[in-house]
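Handoff note, outgoing to incoming analyst
You'll be picking up this chain. Sequence as last confirmed:
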Amino acid sequence: MSEPHPIIVFDGMCVLCSANARFILRHDEAGRFRLATMQSEAGSALMARFGIDPLDPETFILVDGDRVRRNSDAALAIVAGLGWPLKALAALRIVPRPLRDTVYRIVARNRYRWFGRREQCFVPTSEQASRIL
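Most recent structure output, in case you need it:
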């Protein structure tokens, strides 16, 4: 699966993750990113390809060609691709990865309890549909 755009695979049932997806779609004015829920066929295949169980994920991924980023590295790569002023958040890379990923994993493990779980998977607007795999 060769895609010219980086693909963000996220949990479409998670309220926080879906809100982040809508945020990315709204602020990615260049249309750089494509998105797929891990519950979709395309998203599930990408998760499995990189060794993550789509039925029990603790991360989302950013796939760019054959390269995959996870956890805080994925989040920082995404904000770096959104342009200014959001791009400035990528400066958080100076925080050591083990610390960033610890915070990321705490939020990921508690995302349903803290933010809720959707009854149905994320549904894009008609304008966003072309950017969803």
